[in-house]
Structures are given as structure tokens and as C-alpha cells.
């Protein structure tokens, strides 16, 4: 039930935040805030939160499977997103990639 409520609330929040925005057509490379430190702040936060949950809850399964999930994200998900962003923004994204690390 909690997952259902969480999913519904995030979809609702997404609808509110993106109202009037065409998220399918990005217009600029964001290089400030957390994106000035890492190109993937949400993936980094996801990994750190899961690591913290595994440690605090003393759940070895989270800790055992987390490296595989991070590797999958690093090897398959992020490169696909980077190709898309490169095709959208060209040299501006390549410059950003050269300045800011994928994880840190």
C-alpha cells in the first residue's frame, strides 16, 4: 500500500511540476546546483540511500545486490541517456560531460 501511495503521489507531483512544460523537448543543459557536481544526482542519491538503508537495517541483501544494480545503471541506463542528451544538445553537452563527472 505504501508503494502505491508513494507512486501515485510522485505521479501527481510530476504532473503539477511539469504543467505547461513539454518534457519531451529539452531546451538547455542544466549545469548548476547538484548537476554542477555530478551528471547523475538522482542515481547517486538513489545508490547512497539504498546503501544507507542496507547498513541501518543491517540488511545484507540490499548491500549484496546494490553493486549489481549500480553496475547495470552505469553500463546500460546512463550511456543511453547520455547518447540522447548528446543528440539533443551537441557540443554544449559534450562540454558539460568534460567538466562534470558521471558520478562525482
Task: Supply database-style keywords.
68% helix; 104 residues; mainly alpha; elongated
Major sheet: none
Structural class: mainly alpha
Find the count of extended strands (DSSP E, 2+ residues). 0
Supply the number of helical segments. Answer: 4
Shape: elongated
User: Which consecutive residue ranges, at least 5 long each, have pLDDT under 50?
Assistant: 1-7
Helical fraction equals: 55-70%
- Element-level helix/strand string: HHHH
Give the domain tally. Answer: 1
Rounded to the nearest angstrom, the distance between the terminal CA atoms is: 35 Å
Mean of residue pLDDT values:
85
> What fraction strand?
under 5%
Query: Gyration radius, to the nearest Å?
Result: 16 Å
Task: Reconstruct the topology from this structure.
Blueprint: H1 2-17, H2 41-56, H3 60-89, H4 91-99
Please provide a brief summary of the model.
The chain is built from four helices and no strands.
